[in-house]
Amino acid sequence: MLTGRYNISLVIVSLLMAMLASYTALDMAARVAAAKGRAAFWWLAGGSIAMGVGIWSMHFLGMLAFRLPVAMGYDLSITVLSLLIAIASSLFALWIVCQSHLSWRRLAASALIMGAGVCSMHYTGMAAMRMTPPIRYNPPLFILSVVIAVAASGAALWIAFHLRNRGAGVRRLRAAAAVVMGLAIAGMHYTGMAAARFPANTRCAMAESGVTTGWLALFITVFAGAVLSIALITSVLDLRLEQRTAVLASCLADAKQELQFIALHDGLTKLPNRNLLNDRLEQEIQNARRERSRFSVLCMDVDGFRQINDAWGHRVGDALLVEVARRLRASIRTRDTLARLGGDEFVILADVGEAGDAVSLAEKLLTAVREPVVIDGRQLRVSLSIGIAMFDGREQQQQGDLLRDADAAMSHAMALGHNGYVFFQSSMSDDAQTQLQLLHDLRQAQGRHELVLYYQPKYNTQDGAMIGAEALVRWNHPTRGLVPPGDFIPLAEKTGLIFQIGEWVLNEACRQMSAWRDAGHTDWAISVNLSALQFNHPKLIDMVREVLAQHSLEPRYLTLEITESTAMRDADTSLVILEQLHHMGVRISIDDFGTGYSSLLYLKRLPASELKIDRGFVRDLTHDTEDAAIIAAIVALGRALDLKIVAEGVETREQQEYLTRLGCTSLQGFLLGRPMPAAQFLEAVSVPGRTWERIGLLV
């Protein structure tokens, strides 16, 4: 018998190739299992080729590592056949491990089939040497190699099936499993080689005409390594792309979900907003009609919120709304819907069909909100005004009707003194319709030139000279007549129309002041009121600057009046806005002084030029010593801060004389002149000898 020997270097290379092929097989199994549709087919095809080339190259390198004392060669066609058998076996293996289940019976059958394929590859490759006389095999070792092939195939299939999914540390497990599988595959090969017996007169028929060894080992190593490396690199890149795609898809899904949440929920309280409320209300109406049931809609306004928000600022106001929302949510059942429509208005869709149950729920809500709220160490108290509308199943009753009815009932609850509830009655819809019509007319008032400015004169207390006027907007309605601002300004603020109305007022007042200045009244100034919404508008400074430039009016002719509550709502922000106006040259007046909650620390920093005493203190001045004391304190404060003091609402000579003695700088009121259009204003104030005494005689 011929005795063979092994090239240790090639043996080691074959072992490494077996491990690399095993790792590639495990990775391909994972890729095929994860792929869908046509991509799964291509991964199965490519993976089986890479895996088959790897296993076959290990086998062929092992054969090349074996040396006999005769010339060696290989039949090309038989060698290619062994490669195809390796690829087919790999295809079968990958297909098996990508099934959803791998029972023990299927595993055993698959191990036999794949083991037979591996043995066929090995012994077909051995036959490619075309030895004469033929190779004889030691039966025990031959049987052992078959057993090893079947066992290794079963182990490889089981490992690949359980490591096909991704997870933490799975790559380390695959690497360890690849070492075990590589050793098992190599063990089968070298056991089969050990079973081969070569007689002493053996010669290789392909030594001269077949594929000679030469550089074949290097070529196979490079070729197989390249195939396996390309497969692994492609797998890694595809995995990274898939992971990035998954991350992007997850981010997009999260962003979509967040956008949907934002579109349907209130940003502050996270409660459903009007859009989601309308959808749920429509569903509730359909369910109630189908099941012939009833439910209730409760519209709520937080009494006292606006005062707290004006006094302590938006941060405290927002915290208060969040706490109110929490209490309301805790007071209803999970199947009920609590929504915030904006500001301090909330709505509840309650699965309550009886008026008595609706009353119980309303009282529960009133009790929950009535408890004091502590924010930043301040104990704040608010209450609710609740309007209740019942869905009774009428076909003509729609979601808009329910909300409008509940809102109308809420308005009546507020008018009755707050902290209570009112059921909707049909008579209330007339008031709601009136408000809607008024809003419709107000939207067209400016375009129809129905808004007009009236001017009320202001006089110096020292010499009785007129120092300017306050511009007051009026609405000359075509059917209602002259509508006072108290009837439409709140509606304008609620709907946002206050911005365009306020801009028109400022523009018209500056135009009129420019005309008066050109007429020689250079010692006058015009006062214009700013609402809280206007004052906080981001384009206020630019608007004032543009209006002054448009009418070529020096800023000193314009005085902007803001209420004390507006100035103190967010004192730091107010300070920035007022300083910009002050640096522009516009004068600042703090209106309704004494009715808010001023901080002297901030008040002395505000660049105001005057304080305006609220008419409420002037009304009972001569009969109420407390009002007199308050006015005296305001005058003293103004002197200390070097501010002018303006008193409004002067209607009697006694008030005029008393305020003059206290030290007020200027006065305005019905005693001195009622608000009037520009043409009448100029005529009235131009009366010769118009002094305090003359005015007093006229009165």
Descriptive account of the structure:
The chain has 699 residues and is of the alpha/beta class. It folds into three domains: 5-238, no CATH class; 274-425, Alpha-Beta Plaits, CATH 3.30.70; 438-698, EAL domain (TIM Barrel, Alpha-Beta Barrel), CATH 3.20.20.450. It is 59% helix and 15% strand. The protein contains 25 helices and 22 strands. It has an eight-stranded mixed β-barrel, surrounded by five helices. Strand 10 and strand 11 (378-380) form a beta hairpin. Residues 694-699 have low confidence and may be disordered.
Task: Please render the helix and strand layout as text.
Blueprint: E1 5-6, H1 8-34, H2 38-65, E2 66-67, H3 76-97, H4 104-127, E3 131-132, E4 136-137, H5 139-162, H6 170-195, E5 196-197, E6 203-204, H7 216-264, H8 274-291, E7 295-303, H9 305-312, H10 314-330, E8 337-342, E9 345-350, H11 355-370, E10 373-375, E11 378-380, E12 383-391, H12 399-415, E13 420-423, H13 428-445, E14 451-460, E15 466-477, E16 481-483, H14 485-495, H15 498-518, E17 525-529, H16 532-535, H17 540-550, E18 558-563, H18 564-569, H19 571-584, E19 587-593, H20 600-603, E20 610-613, H21 615-619, H22 625-640, E21 644-647, H23 653-662, E22 666-667, H24 678-685, H25 692-698
Parallel strand pairs: 12-13, 15-17, 17-18, 18-19, 19-20, 20-21, 21-22
Antiparallel strand pairs: 1-2, 3-6, 4-5, 7-9, 7-12, 8-9, 10-11, 14-15, 14-22, 15-16
